[in-house]
Protein 1
Amino acid sequence: MAALVFLGASTAADEKRLSIYSSVATYTLPVTDRTGREYVGLLEVLEPLGRISARVEGQHWKMRFNDSDGDFVTGRTRAKVRGRDLDLGGPFLIEHSRGMIPVSSLSTLLPRFLGNAVTVREAARRLFIGDIATQVTAQLDSSTPPRLLLNFTAPVNPTISTEPGKLKMIFAREPLVPPANMSLAFENSTINQALFSESNGTAELTIASSSPLMASFSNNGRTITVTAASQAPPPAGSTPVVGETPPSEAPPAVGGTPVTETPAPPASNARRPLAVVDPAHGGSERGAALTETLAEKNVTLGFARLLRHELDRQGFAVILLRDGDDTLTLDQRAGAANAARPVIYISLHAASQGSGARVYTAMLPREGPDRGPFHAWNAAQTPALPVSQSVATAIVSEMQKREFPARVYSASLRPLNNLLMPALAIELAPGPNGVADLPSANYQQKVAAAIADGVASQRQRLETQP
Amino acid sequence: MIPRHLILGVAVLLVIVLSMGIYLSHMRRSAEEMQRLAADTRPIAAPTSGPTETVTLYVADDATGVLRSQSAQIPLPGGRQQRAEELLRALLRIYQQSDSPHPLAPAAEIRSIYLIDPGAAVIDLNAPFADQHRSSILGEQLTVNSLVETLAVNVPGINRVRILVDGSTRETLAGHADLSEFFDVNAVGQAVTQGGQ
């Protein structure tokens, strides 16, 4: 059980990440070092992009993505995809039933599955699927005060921060590619230089200056104007931001979710609060039949993986209670979550009725006579219930900010009753396109981002829980 | 040589005897059936006559995700247990109408309700009630809340309710709502009052 629990843990010790940009979804995956190479889980790479299933047969890891089959053998550098041999450039690995491939193989492997051109910027760990890149051009207006106009080919929503002599824009979700020159020098005493860099799944634009700078958004997020902070106000119709996060009016990046306002996550797992995400059902227990072919257990697993990325981005270490099609009893789920001692537990469900999302806290049964510090197994949640309710309210508030219908309920739903830490269940319901939205990575990502924001807003309270 | 008229006479008599035997057998079966029916005192339809009472039913509404209270005039027997059963059967009939706000299977039934002092009630549902219930947290919880709240408000003295299916314990109603414990009437009442927040 312990092995299963820690199978899905976000390995953030070295903080290596791979960002994947596509027209379907934008997401980030953990990268791990094995035998001197960087590896990533193949299931996690493909899961947001289509229907995928995988199974281990002895030394073979066999998978099916949409209509394409793949056969990988542990320790071998060659694999068979759609009936043809392919060189992975490094041995394939199976770890706890997860198929791991070298990051360097993605540029040849993914086009076989997706039929699209794939560009991998390996040193920066950024992967672009199809023609999705966002270009930037810079133009300095040397009038007084000087203004640097950054024009993007698609709306952007970077995290902006300042430090003496610099204004930094971090593009965590945008498929921003470098301009022709990585470094642009300006013959101006106030704004001297614009420097593009990219690493570890993000792109960064740094503007060097001799005085404090202010950035403002306009043109529906396609233009950022950088001016000296003490100078005249920004152009009409723009939203100023000084050393903070971008304006909420700015449209989301491709794939969906605005960059959040929480500070950058701490650098090591030791300082990260732990969250347990539990994709409900699994294995022989299919959950609700959302359509004739879509089972609740599959939707909850994909949703959980996206939530893992969003919570990870907010600085939480994350454990998935199942990261495959495994059968777990409710007592096993409760036991595993209690043993991991997380600051929060989130169970994910999906339903074909209603719309939006429903957030549940435990409806506790009546406890027997007072047993002092001891609580019955079915009422273990009692001490944590007030914090659970606060987090549920915060999540619903985040969803409502995004005009996403959501409500808080209480429900007699196991294993919520048996958990010692703040615990919630979230039921994803259809969106504007009906049940078809439920497996959509874009739809799920919007909800996952709101959940992560809501949880992050209660982080201090969660961390001070006994 | 037997005369022809004698043969015919014997044949006619045989036919008459046979017919009488068949008729007698039929008459005996009819008499037995009438006796059996007379001895069967089980109700075959809801009482439609007798004094009616105004009760409050808590009806689940899938569209809004809450329970709404609805007054109804239904004939109720005198005994507490029979009253409880008629109450929930009246509630179930609403859910089985074609325009139900929270559809339940046509084959769903309340088998029995047992009132156990002090303050406990056990609702025994039939298997199709659970087997054909739509699977979702909200849908299942609304059903549970509706049964518990309707019972608790109209039958005084109940403070906890257990739900069985076909006389046996079941882990969940349809994959979500936990049926393994007694429901606390106060907790359900609080959830019903607050609805979604």
Note: Chain B touches chain A through 31 residues (CB under 8 Å).
Protein 2
Amino acid sequence: MKWIGSALIAAALLLPPFVAGDFYINLASQILIAAIFALSLNLLVGFGGMTSLGHASYLGVAAYLSALLTSRYGFGHGTAALISILGTIVMAALFGLIALRATGLGFLMITLALSQVLWGLAYRMSDVTNGDNGITGLTRPSPFGISLDSAASFYWFALAVTAFAFAMMAIFVSSSFGSSLKGVRDQPRRMAALGFNPWMIRWITFIYAGFWGGIAGLLYVYYNKYIHPTSLSTTSSAEALLGVIAGGSGTLGGPAVGAALVLLLKNYASAYVERWNMLLGLVFLFIVLVMPTGIVPGVQKLTARFKGRSS
Amino acid sequence: MQFWIIQGLNSLSLGGLLFLLSSGFSLIFGLMRLANLTHGAFFMLGTYFGAVALRGYSGLNIWVTALGAGIAVAALGGLFERLVLTRLKTNPLGQVLVTLGMSFIISDACLVLWGGDSIPVPTPQNLQAPTRLFGFVFPTYRLVLVGVAVIAAIALYVLMDRTRLGAMIRAGVDDRQMARAVGIPVSRLFTIVFCLGAGIAGAAGVLGGPILSAYPGLDADMLPLALIVVILGGIGSLFGAFIGSFIIGFIYTFGTTLFPELAYVILFLPMIVVIAFRPQGLFGRAGA
């Protein structure tokens, strides 16, 4: 049964460039980027039990660094990407040192506060970030000399990165380190008594999640060729968190599904109504009140019940 | 010298405003263990309320308007608490997420209702004339704001430490289960405290209006300030919120004038230092 599902997903992911027009291929690329971002946040929220409301920091900072390095300081895309990711990792390590002094709601408030600083900086340090106008006129890289300017070629690039990211995060979660992470989430005291260092486990996860958030940020800025402070806003963090929770935090694929749904909703809703933030708020209320465990676990529960009846 | 005194007074008035903003947040967090992310939006609602009322009826008194906004926002907060938050008693994370969702809804509704331009809130006429203090000229309204914050702090202290309601709330903060067991209606206290916290935020929004003016994004600007103050002062501690407000008031004011580029970073330094050495905040209790 399981391999049929996997084959279907693989087919659905490989199909868009062959059958769809540019609009839908681009939409699919955006979904992939949002999926990496939500999966990285899920490492914290779902597997680590650390609900962060500041994950946009990593996406935004990697994107801003890459944008500034390539457009203003004349770096090539390869070097710029390397420096951006290194910068994001250092920032995640520092933010982790601060935020992990607290757990639970304190952690959430500190991550929110830290990400708001960056958002404020992006707006106010306008000689560097160009403030509210954002940074325009960016280019996409051409890895191995292949241009990514067409919708289809960018989709293949994003798909390859997503597949790699998904595999890496799946290995991370199912490794022994992943098990100790889940142990720290559920029983931090017992884990400490067993000789694990809960703080270190959380911190490493925090940095790893920041790293993949940064990768999502690079794809984001390559795709849009533009970066604006809103990518660092609470709304951006909240969209990802909504994707994680709607899809089912703590499941491997759920957040990707959730992120896809949030993105589709945003695209289709913004075609008809201007009020995306209000809709986002309403969806938040709906999901939390009606489907607190998320869509993917909900469906899994349904299929399990169905299977139980047929056998 | 003049610079230091004037900026010092500016810091005091910002501190007063910050206390009015964050005391409600601290109160709600202390009792309900709920990080109410709608707090910035409640404040912004108050500011718009003040802008509309004070511009529409020129004879209106700002104190009456603040009271009205406080009651209106408290009622809205009470509805939200009764209809939504009580359903999520067992799900603290869910509670935070719905307050976040609610803040998006409110801030977007404000954008629909009042548009994207900032609306200045008039300073009360009898407080427009500057005050001379030690030979320095200073806006009277800002001085009055410090006084209001001190009065609010004393009133909250009396409410929490000298009344029966306050004693019940403190009992609920210390041990919710035991408070229930001895017959304190903790669930009703939650609603009262949420209304009170939201109401203070709404009233603070009106009073902050003449300094900040009403604009979209005000909520997103104010919420982190409330978070910083409360994290710095100690989560759930009113005294901590009071001291934290003035610390942040000074740091922010001097930061923006001395290092305008870095003001936003400087704002977070005290929080970071305090968290590093005292994770529970300056006046927070360990394990709270």
Note: The CA atoms of residues 299 and 305 of chain A lie 10 Å apart.
